[in-house]
Fold:
Amino acid sequence: MDTKKLTAKDFITVGIFTAILFVVEFACGMLGYIHPYVVASYVVMIPLVGAIPMMLFYTKVKKFGMISIMSVLLAIIMFVTGMGYLGAPLIILAGVIADLIAKSGGYKSVQKTVLSHGVFCLWICANYFPVVITAQSYRQGLVEAGFSAEYCDNLFRAINTKTIAVLLILCFIFGCIGAWIGKAVVKKHFEKAGIV
Amino acid sequence: MRLKLDPRTKLYMLLIVSAIVMMSATTPFLWAIRLTMTAIPLVLLVTEKRYASALRFAVLYAAALLLTFRFLSEESTGLLKSLLTGYSGIVVQFMPALITAWYVVRTTKIGEFMSAMQKMHVPDGLAISLAVVMRFFPTIKEEYASISDAMRMRGVALGGGNAAKMIEYRMIPLLFSCVNIGDELSAAAITRGLGGKGKRTSVEVLRLRAFDWLLIAAFTAAAVVFAVFKYVL
Structure:
């Protein structure tokens, strides 16, 4: 396993963890229909919960490209599930940068991993892109889809061009915090069991 | 009757439907297009003898449509109503894409998928990962169900009301089994020559038949008409 090129096993690992991460995202996404403020709190929930599988994933990443491919897959899945293509550049950009950061730490350095996960978590904000960029038509779409006017007002109060910067920063911060927690959880459960 | 569609046709359908669910339908005519496009994968599911899932999807979609148009409006307030609005809203919005995705995942063999990807010149790495993702959702669902059962049996399903515990109790066993399944999957796939140097060949030769072209044409037309009526007229 000292080759630089990615092997079939690596691709399979990427596939599995992408699926798990998406399930986490989807589960959190379902909660968003309770109240729009929950939608805004994705930036807290998904990095924290998703960090556990992600940290396990990072222990398996040894070569450049795995995190990037994951981001491409996420972009594809987001499109297919109807979240739009507007966020795709952000997802992939975050993935590649996260990959580069992790690479600079040799995929071993703890600080770099934490930082990398923080950057990677920025992909969550891609969920908000349709809300921010196409605000007018998106709102119209929501009202027609049967959402209450109250829901829409709250949604746009929580997520707009002004708050998106805050949300991005929150994503990063909670991505880093999540990474620490995730590392601890992985250590507690998986290292003992000898899986890592 | 069993129609054998080319995986490329299926993927194309998925692409178009995903694009259409992003544009909200505003007039009865647009709704008609949308409903037709939802009906096609449903019919295809029936032809593949997936009666149960076709019925489930149809009933759920119909119920959500009914709820959205009959009983709920912009003014609906209150927790129950807003929950209901939210969920029927999401069902109405995303169901077409979900049905199509389900159809594609359930009726495409992994070999077919890989050979279609190869024909479209998608890099091998991306194709492998995508194939694994596709295959893995049902596996996660199964594993999760077994974990829930086990937890309920031992009476720890709610984790003592502690949210972090609840997540931990579910996530860790799930990850354990997923990692193990992944290892087995890699071993199986590599034994069968995945990631080898030679060019992959396929037993089934993929060919776009008349019916494939018909569907592709129909979906393209639907997408164009939808976009024109929504944004131009």
Q: What stands out?
A: Chain B touches chain A through 62 residues (CB under 8 Å). Chain B has two domains: 1-108+204-233, 124-202.
